[in-house]
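> call design_seq(struct)
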């Protein structure tokens, strides 16, 4: 344990979830980055290094991390292993980020997790050039909670990047690298190959690296890192992958080739080819974690995939008209969502409700959806990071034309307007129209909460 100076300032403990949330939000935001693992290392040191008490499956990549981590979690629990899962960002509430045995912490458990680390925050702040951030603090909360549970394995999604991400103070026995494309260009770089250098940092000596299909320059970077640290690579398309997939009511039916066996006709209640690929990666990650020559029981795999969920990822939250929520927030994610809409949905017309963050490639995202949306209602979420609706509308008009764009800054009103357009333009096909709410995890989370309050 590191020696830290005493302080006369009493620790700020929380009595309620709202107080814990406020204390976390008062820290440096997730988007204010100062690349260093020193602060999180020191905090975990004074906590007794809880992250060393269990093995970990660590995930990075541009899109698909949360869905894949939820699949891995479900498969591991099917093996009677107690799991901890850390994902970010949250869709609706902050305690979604930390789950034990597949269930997010209750408000009371979240408060307790915060209070476990709160006494040490000011001490570490006093020693560092910059205070602990929101993200560093909640990572420490997760790692400490997993040790307290205790869990048999942690499934941990990076917040951003890899090497300098706060989660990377722990070493994953399995490192999962999902498809890498451009996102967070301001922080990570403006090309997939450059971004891959940062994301490759989660691959540690002796680990098994499970690689989704990548662009050639990305694959070269990852394989170089694997060789440097003495890890082992298993690659989608060579060692595992999707054999077949057929869209089905409520999801899709897939056949997957794992590392040691083939699993046929698995029902996955998620839409899109990208989710089938995520499932193949998740299966390979669990096989790699189990190790040896053990073949996973076919019925276990079948049962696990059948119960997977991923809120806010092509999630149908209302019918009449159908309202679909999807957290796509960059062009790569929007292209995957658009392809899934094409093969799994028959919504005509489809009206988009789009609100993005100010630091995102709004034009690229809008362009990916353009062939699939009859009309877009441009809006914004409630955060300071949101791109103002009027500014986003200017971009949308360039892509869609003025007659296909309406501006409604209030999200609730934007959804109501889009639902009305979907119904009015359905013509004789009663109920055939639909609404897609997308552009940001925050936009989707606020829409989801609002629609739940309305009783969907």
């Amino acid at each position: 344990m590191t020696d830290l100076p005493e302080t006369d300032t009493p620790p700020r403990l929380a009595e309620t979830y709202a107080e814990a949330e406020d204390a976390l939000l008062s820290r440096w935001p997730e988007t204010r980055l100062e690349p260093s693992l020193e602060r999180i290392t020191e905090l975990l040191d004074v906590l007794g290094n809880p992250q060393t008490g269990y093995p970990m499956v660590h995930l990075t990549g541009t899109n698909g991390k949360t869905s894949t981590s939820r699949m891995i979690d479900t498969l591991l629990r099917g093996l009677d292993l107690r799991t901890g899962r850390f994902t970010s960002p949250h869709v609706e509430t902050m305690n979604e980020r930390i789950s034990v045995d597949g269930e997010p912490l209750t408000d009371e458990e979240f408060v307790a997790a915060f209070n476990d680390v709160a006494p040490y925050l000011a001490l570490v702040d006093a020693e560092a050039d910059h205070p602990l951030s929101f993200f560093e603090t909640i990572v420490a909360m997760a790692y400490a909670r997993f040790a307290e549970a205790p869990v048999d394995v942690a499934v941990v999604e990076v917040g951003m990047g890899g090497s300098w991400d706060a989660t990377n103070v722990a070493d994953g026995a399995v490192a999962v690298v999902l498809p890498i494309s451009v996102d967070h260009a301001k922080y990570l770089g403006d090309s997939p190959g450059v971004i891959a250098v940062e994301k490759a940092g989660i691959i540690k000596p002796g680990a098994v690296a499970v690689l989704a299909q990548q662009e050639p320059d990305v694959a070269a970077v990852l394989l170089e890192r694997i060789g440097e640290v003495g890890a082992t690579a298993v690659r989608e398309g060579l060692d595992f992958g999707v054999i077949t997939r057929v869209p089905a009511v409520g999801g899709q039916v897939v056949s997957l080739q794992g590392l040691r066996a083939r699993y046929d006709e698995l029902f996955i209640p998620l839409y899109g080819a990208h989710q089938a690929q995520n499932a193949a990666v998740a299966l390979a990650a669990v096989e790699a974690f189990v190790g040896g020559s053990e073949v996973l029981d076919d019925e276990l795999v079948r049962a696990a995939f059948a119960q997977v969920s991923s809120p806010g990822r092509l999630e149908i939250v209302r019918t009449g008209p159908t309202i679909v929520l999807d957290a796509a927030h960059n062009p790569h994610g929007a292209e995957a969502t658009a392809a899934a809409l094409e093969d799994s949905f028959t919504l005509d017309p489809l009206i988009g409700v789009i609100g993005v963050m100010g630091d995102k490639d709004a034009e690229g995202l809008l362009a990916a959806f353009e062939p699939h949306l009859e009309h877009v209602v441009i809006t914004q979420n409630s955060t300071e990071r949101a791109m103002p609706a009027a500014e986003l509308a200017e971009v949308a008009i360039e892509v869609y034309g003025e007659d296909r764009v309406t501006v409604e800054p209030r999200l609730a009103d934007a959804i109501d307007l889009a639902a009305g357009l979907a119904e009015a333009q359905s013509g004789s096909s009663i109920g055939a129209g639909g609404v897609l709410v997308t552009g940001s995890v925050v936009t989707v989370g606020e829409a989801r909460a609002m629609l739940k309050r309305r009783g969907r």
